[in-house]
Amino acid sequence: MVSEGEQRCLSIAAFFAELSTADDPSGIVFDDPVSSLDFQWRNGVARRLVQEARTRQVIVFTHDVVFLLSLRQYAEELGVEPLDQHVRHQSKGAGVCAEELPWVALPVKKKIGYLNKCWQDADKLSREGHQDAYEKEAKYLYGLLREAWERALEEVLLVGVVERYRPGIQTQHIAQIADIKPDDCRAVNTAMTKCSTWLPGHDKAAAARSPVPVAAELKADIKALEDWVAGIRKRRKGSA
Question: The whole model's pTM is what?
Answer without folding.
Answer: 0.79
